[in-house]
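User: I'm new to structure prediction. If I give you an amino acid sequence, what do you actually give back? Let's try with this one:
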Amino acid sequence: MSNDGQNNDELNQNTQTALPNEGASINRRSLLKGVMGAAGVASLPSFVFPALAQGERLVPFTDVPDTFKVGPVRPNAVHYLDTREIDSYFTDNEDFYLVQHYGQPEVDNDSYRLRVTGMVDKELDLSLSDLMARDVFEQQVGFECGGNGRRLFNGLVGNAYWRGVTLHRLLEEAGIQPGAKEIVFFGSDIQTQEVPARGVEVEKAFARSLSIEDAMRPENMLAYEMNGEPLPHYHGKPVRLLVPGWYGVANVKWLTQIHVQDTRYMGRFMGRDYVTLKKENVGGVERWVENSVAEMNLKSTIVRVVENGGDYTIQGFALNDGTPLESIEVKVDDGPWRRAQINPRSTKYAWKLFSFDWQDATPGDHTI
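Assistant: Good question. You get back a string of structure tokens that encode the predicted 3D arrangement of the chain. For your 368 residues, that looks like this:
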């Protein structure tokens, strides 16, 4: 599914694969039917995607070229997850996707400061030790890049266990003044940019903003640990913002300043890049409207098909803005929708791993 702001209940990803034994091909269109509702998944059996056991084989997707490889993390480069190799509920820090626009600045833990400024009753100037001395907040959060899609086989994604402090308590301590409208989050990553049509260059920090209402959501956090380890340098050391349920661009890394203001922030990554264009009804008139990328759309990916002694299992994950999923259903060709098993370990903002036993698989081309 393209991240164009459309709200679809059925999400399509086209891939192809070939059965190892028969040599036949399967046209795999991962199609998740997400039915929104309040029902939980606690009654379903627990599982993760284990490493292949003896006798098990992956059915290769024929639209994934043999040359498709995921290398190690490289400085200042995009890094993506090979979703075919997901074998753990939490994504290893070295595998979790990376996108950065202004490089990866080195920030020293000992000299690090986080400032809360602007329309507040009391400005704050905090060290990393100050943050770590506060009440700890932990949660599971998965997210994807706003540009995640088929080009990298949906690999700009990850799911991790984060530890830090809640944002709203920090803002409450500072005291937001009446009339404030937005809160801007500035990173330490800076780049010199030329101002179009003016012939001047300026230094710009990566920044995103939230409305006061969005910023005060209780699940928003400032994370300093990832999967039980200090936040890695390339994931925003020492502190990054996390806005669960939103695309990764909102999760500002190398966070250095939180600024409260009474005007809308129109920086590059709010007003120009990471902007969707979609048709909306505006007072009874159909108009094309631009919006900053925010909450994640419902997304599914089939990560692999496993064969063992002629039995096939379809495995995948779903990710969204935290809206409860009543069920995940899988459809093969023109057959009926059938319910997959969802890992009950999945929490509100984590990815939802699912598995489906494909018991009537036959040689030939298929659509999933």
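You can read the tokens as a compact description of the fold. Here is one thing that stands out. The helical segments are 128-132, 167-174, 212-215, 268-271.
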